[in-house]
Design a protein that fits this description.
mainly alpha, globular
Length: 94
């Protein structure tokens, strides 16, 4: 999601902040395109879960419980970007 958001912002001519914080990136994307606003609260949770995976010894049960939801959110976010900027993506093959 981080790279999709940064790529989206770059395609619009913005220089995204050097951050891995998805909330900051989606805030910038939402400023350019209001459809991204719906992802703000979800990305707070995804950021938290991502940080848990970065350090050994953390209880990752919650992360795995949320994985399906996070994957769905990632697909929705990517779909908006792919539909908005189709020129940057390969055409789907049948």
């Amino acid at each position: 999601m981080e790279l999709y958001l940064k790529g989206f912002l770059l395609a619009l001519g913005w220089q995204p902040e050097k951050t891995k914080n998805l909330r900051k990136l989606v805030d910038a994307a939402a400023f350019a395109d209001g459809r991204f606003s719906v992802f703000k609260s979800s990305l707070i949770e995804i950021n938290r879960d991502f940080r848990l995976t970065q350090y050994p010894g953390k209880d990752l049960r919650k992360v795995s419980d949320h994985f399906a939801i996070h994957r769905q959110i990632a697909h929705q976010l990517a779909a908006i970007i792919r539909n908005t900027l189709p020129q940057f993506f390969d055409a789907p093959t049948s």
